[in-house]
Amino acid sequence: MPAGTPFDWTDVDVAVPRRSNRLTGVGMAGFRHRVPGRVDIAMVAHPSVTLLIDLADGDGIVHDGPGRRERGSVVVGLLPGDLRTTGHGTGECLQIRLEPDVAAAVLGASSELTGTVAALADVWGRDAPRVEDRLRAAPSWDERFAIAADVLGRRLGARPPVDPEVAHAWRRTLADRGRVRVGRLADEVGWSRKRLWSRFRSQLGITPKHAARLVRCDHAAHLLAAGHAAVDVATRCGYADQSHLHREVKTFTGFTPTAVASAPWLAIDDVAWPASSPARHPAEAATLR
Questions:
Q1: pLDDT for 230 beyond 60
Q2: pLDDT of residue 105
Q3: Which end of the chain is more exposed for a tag (fewer CB within 10 A), N or C?
Q4: Which class is domain 9-158?
Q5: Are 51 and 65 in contact (CB under 8 A)?
Q6: Are 65 and 116 in contact (CB under 8 A)?
Q7: What is the pLDDT at residue 272?
Q8: Which segments constitute the HTH araC/xylS-type domain (predicted)?
Q9: Which part of the chain is CATH 1.10.10.60?
Q10: Dist. CA 286–CA 289, nearest whole Å
């Protein structure tokens, strides 16, 4: 998620796929920075594995993470730490969010990506440059989304999915906004807590508890950006108190709740991710727009 910086989103055109190009557990959005100038965006944790496909000409986008710098198209794993994306010019980028269970099937290395940023070619293999060339040559975002959906769909069909029990646990965590307990998830899938913990972590690269914290923090960030008071957000999201909220938001975003509330980065979230944004009260959505 782009975080609060001087970057002006009014200079960005945003495109989203038609419903026919949407895949379960996959969100896509296209961004075109139409005003020449410097792009400098802080990225923070999101409950997805993210593909940033650089479609710009020239030097391309630079991604600076902890102890690592990548240029061009990258895969951002869960919990990537402090990450900044910079560039110059007008550039275009296709951003694809993969829910962790889908990422495991598409990439085959979801668990190894946690806490990292890697070049797309290192993860995707030799097909990466060909896919980038096809996307760059496509004359419209609709065609780019169709190409991406086709490529992702074929990769999904070529690899074994994660255990259905793990997929169920992830979907329930997402649906309950991180407030479902691990013991309850284990009961629902008929596994012991220990087995669910082990299989979830080995296949998705994160423990069920950490996944719940990440999802809950994402929901809290949206509420803060929608203008809700931190004390109310803490209550609604199940935090012990406002201090607990502060610590969790700081851990996962690198920002204080006050900074998150005043940042412009979530203002386009409903626009860029209409199929994947959490369901919100109408008043919240109105505030974001």
A1: yes
A2: 86
A3: C
A4: mainly beta
A5: no
A6: yes
A7: 73
A8: 164-263
A9: 164-288
A10: 5
As assigned by CATH, the class of the 164-288 domain is: mainly alpha
Confidence label for 150 from pLDDT (cuts 50, 70 and 90): very high
Other C-beta atoms closer than 10 Å to the C-beta of 46 total 21
Q: Which of 159-173, 198-212, 247-261, 269-283 shows the lowest mean pLDDT across its residues?
A: 269-283
Using CA atoms, how far apart are residues 266 and 3, in angstroms rounded to an integer? 8
Q: What share of the chain is helix, strand, coil (3-state, %, to 5)?
A: 50, 20, 35
- Torsion angle of alpha carbons 198, 199, 202, 203, nearest 10°? -160
pLDDT in tens, 65-123: 777 788 889 998 888 777 777 777 667 899 999 999 899 888 876 567 788 888 999 98
Question: What pLDDT does residue 209 have?
Answer: 95
Tokens standing for residue 184: 């309850």
Give tens-digit pLDDT for 241-255.
999 999 999 888 888
For residue 8, count CB atoms less than 10 angstroms from its CB and return exposed for 0-12, middle for 13-18, buried for 19 or more.
exposed
Nearest to 225 by CA among 154, 286, 158: 286
> pTM for the full model?
0.85
Which residue pairs from 256-263 have beta carbons closer than 8 angstroms and sit at least 24 positions apart in sequence? 257/220, 257/224, 257/230, 257/233, 258/230, 259/4, 260/3, 260/4, 260/221, 260/224, 260/225, 261/224, 261/225, 261/227, 261/230, 262/4, 263/3, 263/4, 263/5, 263/225
Looking at 79-83, 115-119, 196-200, 228-232, which range is the least confident one?
79-83
pLDDT for position 51: 94
Closest to 78 measured CA to CA, from 53, 104, 46: 46
26 bridge partner residues: 98
CA distances in angstroms from 166 to 46, 94, 155, 156, 205, listed in the order given: 19, 28, 20, 16, 12
